[in-house]
């Protein structure tokens, strides 16, 4: 194994010999025995691997997690949840909100009834002379 091969395998597999394929371990040991520069590169890779591994994550007690979740749930139940009506109208008394809703309903009904066209007078019907021109037709020719 050449020095370049060792450095390439060191980058690929890391500094721990357990991660290297078995067929490369013996050749890597032989190259490390003869080259102090490669031993220094391996030590540098070992320190980098330790840095990447970092400290072990802290252990968290299940009881602590349960207490935290219970406290969050209790706080969420105590806080009133804003609905869409609350966001639009603010903190309005219920009777006032119900009255406003009834007034808006009546206004909508009134506006809808005014939009309906009035019926034609009795005995007269609307006839189209062309595609776009309407006239009253009472059955007599003129």
Note the main attributes of this structure.
mainly alpha; membrane; transmembrane; 6 helices; elongated; 142 residues; transmembrane helix
What does this structure look like?
The chain has a domain of 51 residues. It is built from 6 helices and 2 strands. It has a two-stranded antiparallel sheet with strand order 1-2. The longest helix has 21 residues. The protein is elongated. 61% of the residues lie in helices and 6% in strands. The protein is mostly helical and 142 residues long. The model has no long low-confidence stretch (mean pLDDT 80).
| Cα radius of gyration in angstroms | 43 Å
The overall strand count is 2
Helix-strand topology string: HHHHHHEE
Number of helices: 6
- Which stretches are low in confidence, meaning pLDDT under 50 for 5 or more residues running? none
Strand content: 5-15%
End-to-end separation: 115 Å
The major β-sheet equals: 2 strands, antiparallel
Mean pLDDT: 80
What structural class should be given to the helix and strand makeup? mainly alpha
Shape: elongated
Largest sheet, order of strands side by side? 1-2
Helix content: 55-70%
Q: How is the topology of this model organized?
A:
Layout: H1 3-13, H2 22-34, H3 36-53, H4 62-78, H5 84-89, H6 94-114, E1 125-128, E2 134-137
Antiparallel strand pairs: 1-2
């Amino acid at each position: 194994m050449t020095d370049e091969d060792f450095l390439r395998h060191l980058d690929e597999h890391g500094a721990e010999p357990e991660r290297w394929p078995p067929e490369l371990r013996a050749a890597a040991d032989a190259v490390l025995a003869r080259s102090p520069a490669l031993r220094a590169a391996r030590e540098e890779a070992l320190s980098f691997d330790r840095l990447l591994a970092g400290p072990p994550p802290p252990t968290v007690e299940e009881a602590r997690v349960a207490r935290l979740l219970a406290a969050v749930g209790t706080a969420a139940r105590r806080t009133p949840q804003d609905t869409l009506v609350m966001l639009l109208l603010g903190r309005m008394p219920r009777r006032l909100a119900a009255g406003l809703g009834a007034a808006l309903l009546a206004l909508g009904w009134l506006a809808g009834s005014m939009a309906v066209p009035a019926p034609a007078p009795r005995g007269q019907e609307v006839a189209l002379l062309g595609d776009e021109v309407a006239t009253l037709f009472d059955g007599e020719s003129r």
